[in-house]
Amino acid sequence: MEVKFLLRCIECGNEYKAYKEVRYKCSCGGLLEVKHNLERLNGKKLKEAWEARWGIRNSVFSSGVWRYKELIADIPDDSIITKLEGNTRLYDSGPAGEYANLKKLKLKHEGENPTGSFKDRGMTSGISISKLLNAKTVACASTGNTSASMASYAAKAGYKSIIFIPSGKIAYGKLSQALAYGGKTLQIEGNFDDAMQLVQEVCSELNIYLLNSINPFRIEGQKAIGFEILQQLEWNVPDWFIIPGGNLGNNTALSKGLMELYSLGIINKIPRIAVIQARGANPLYEMWKNKTFFKPVKDPDTIATAIKIGNPVSWKKSIRGIEWTDGVVEEVTEQEIMDAKAKVDASGIGAEPASCCVVAGAKKLVEAGTISSDSSAVGILTGNMLKDPDATVNYHLGNLKQRGIDGKFKNAPENIKSDIESVKKAVKDII
Q: Tell me: the pLDDT tens digits for 349-394?
């Protein structure tokens, strides 16, 4: 049988058969990644196949992940569990790009996936591999989006799902999905990092399949974000990709996919990657800025709940990808995040706070001269605006002062009397 992919340790180089056993880490303790047999692939023919699949109906290739299956997981079609994820829009940034002074900024909206976030891309690949491993129960730790995605895909597969969330530290828009899709939800004392430690112990002890981004197949599915962006751009590579940084699986996936495309000759330019972290959850930024060893942030805190992670499991993979692309890491404040969110929302696009770190970070990097204002860039919006409606409403109502956030661009509702003259007075400035 032809070997199409293996698991390889990023630390010592040990290799393992990819779906013959459940394994997330090497025996040395290092993280594993999927190593595809690129020698069996022809870049030109692969690109032609992907183009031919664009717009195909009623097939696993209708998925914006499995369209690229040769570089995701080349497994039998009947093993694939898909909700036809991906195929998300690439928008001109409008007022958001003007705000960042980045004229050629486009925004890839992963909030348009089936459960409202980019997590669906990694989940379809992870849960498809779990089927090959005959798993019947899956689990994850989550600040929200992973739990929503896993519970949904588990329901489609007919699996049981178990979710570990930090007590009181998850947006209701996300929690509601996990509950609605039937996930067994356990609120634990502590933060996400505590939940992540516990879920790894539980999965090992109870033989449950783990679907956090420590699972290397999650990363493979998330690579399709980059593949799809490039295909939408007709394979013209932008100067920059700008991504929010939480558990750091997304920029790990993007850089890994770019490396593979570059090796196959599908692209001949390496774009730079900028990872943007919230100041209250910024361990990668502190390491990058101070040129020190990685040190987790204890008790991370940010309104951008999707990236409120102090000890990201993928940081080593992340650093490797940033260095390969000559990338950078930046941090943004709570005020900067929510002001940028107001501009993204006002562009008619809308996204959850973590996503809007992209525009806040772009603005900061342009002001610093790191990114030229005439550079071409794609920012990845990772989650739907309705994932965290409280943050949006409270910004516009001016109710975030306790977090040090002023509604600088707020659009508060106006109370008026129920008569035509009051309406005329209220709208006179806009008609």
A: 999 999 999 999 999 999 999 999 999 999 999 999 998 999 999 9
The answer to whether residues 81 and 122 touch, using CB atoms and an 8 Å cutoff, is no
Distance CA 148, CA 144 (A): 6
Q: Report whether pLDDT(1) > 70.
A: no
The pLDDT of residue 169 is 66
DSSP letters of 271-311?
A: -EEEEEEEGGG-HHHHHHHHT----PPSS---S-GGG--SS
Q: For strand 104-109 and strand 90-92, is the pairing parallel, antiparallel, or unpaired? A: antiparallel
302-332 pLDDT, tens digit each: 999 999 999 998 999 999 999 999 999 999 9
Q: For the domain that residue 396 is a member of, what is the CATH number? A: 3.40.50.1100
CA distances from 104 to 31, 94, 111, 206, 271 (A): 36, 10, 21, 50, 14
Residue type, 415: N
The DSSP bridge partners found for residue 354 are none
DSSP state of 10: T
Residue 379 lies in a domain: yes
Q: How does pLDDT run across 29-79, given as a tens digit for each residue?
A: 999 999 999 999 999 999 999 999 998 988 999 999 999 999 999 999 999
Residues in the chain, overall count: 431
Q: Is residue 301 part of a domain?
A: yes
213 versus 272: the higher-pLDDT residue is 272
Give the span between the Cα atoms of 405 and 139, in whole angstroms.
Answer: 35
| Separation of alpha carbons 145 and 138, rounded Å | 15
Q: CB 35: neighbour CB atoms within 10 A?
A: 17
**Encoding tokens for residue 252?**
């790990």
The DSSP 8-state label assigned to residue 69 in this structure reads G
| φ/ψ bin of 305: left (φ > 0), alpha (ψ from -120 to 50), beta (otherwise) | alpha
d(CA 75, CA 132): 9
pTM above 0.85, yes or no: yes
End-to-end CA distance of the chain: 70
User: Is 250 within a domain?
Assistant: yes
Query: In this structure, what token pair is assigned to residue 214?
Result: 């420590």
How many angstroms separate the CA atoms of 137 and 369, rounded?
A: 49
Q: Can you give the residue range of the structural domain that contains 257?
A: 90-116+218-403
pLDDT mean over 140-168: 92
Q: How many domains does the chain have?
A: 1
Residue 381's φ and ψ, nearest 5 degrees, are -90, 120
What is the overall mean pLDDT for the chain?
94
**Locus of tokens 């079609």:** 77
Angle among Cα 135, 126, 236 to the nearest 5 degrees reads 165
Residue 156 lies inside a defined structural domain of this protein? no
